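DATA CLASS: polypeptide
GOAL: derive structure tokens

***
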Amino acid sequence: MEQNILVSRLQQLGRHFPAVPRNLEQAPIRVAVTGAAGQIGSFLCNFIAQGRMFGPYQKVIMQLIELPAAEKVLKGLVMELNDGAYTCVQQIIPTTDPLVGFKDVDVAVLVGARPRGPGMERSDLLQANAKIFQAQGQAIDKVAKKSVKVAVVGNPANTNALICSHYAPSIPKQNFSALTRLDQGRAVSQLAERTGCQVEEVQNVTIWGNHSATQYPDTFHATIRGRPARQVVNDDAWLDGPFLSKVQKRGAEIISVMGKSSAASAAAAACDHVHDLWYGTVGNNWCNMGVISDGNQYGIPEGIMYSFPLQIATGGQWQVVNGLAINDFSRGKMDKTAKELLEERKMALGF
């Protein structure tokens, strides 16, 4: 009853939230964004400023990092953020120096990465990004808070997160994560469209493994309107075939249609990812992130950043959802994507 009254009041407010009394204001969160002036980064910065990442009552200090070649574009982004007069923004610090950008940050969202160019082999791409994320890891290790939460968006996100953590040895490996929330959103959207339900009625879809075409969107433990998702869909051939392919190749499909990669949806997913790292998951629901595989109970090799279903406590202490039954079909998919991550680690770090 009390919850219904609260929801009713919020519905009447629209976005006219009452101002927070000075004595109830919380300390601002320092959040760094690399590649801030890029396609994803510019969406992400505006979303953060609007309160999508930390809520409408949390002030942020935005520390925006770009390459020197993009300094002019970064200046323009800051002008737009200022013109937006966002009430969640306390300060904006634009910089081309990672030691300035990562200074004392609570959260670092690493968007900037080397894209794959024409004729570039996967090993070349991994080695090029290894240099970028080595430098960023070293800077984070040197100047960020030791409690910093690092979320990697730039692809190949899982292995870039592993590289970054490798070169930031003073920060717990559990504080590094890679974005697979976009894959989760894609899977949820496909299931909602297929069954005619709302996206919020689809719960506990699992994304196993790498943010790549080998990822495994697992529906065996998902629910739709509280019922087992596979019963609701009632089409195993679709779930085990076209559905998987659609989610796995959605990024390439968007590029083929738009001529450019996902931006707004990736930024929205990054906000949801960090929000859950900061505030935790709710009830029995879980979310998906690429995290260090050490100590997992699913037979995944240790020492890689592998996407698992997670439940998260406020403050970012995550725990893999254990005890899910894994059938032979799922086992094969999970092992295939783990093998790819081991190969990526070998190419990027040499072990």
In short: DSSP finds 13 helices and 14 strands in the chain.
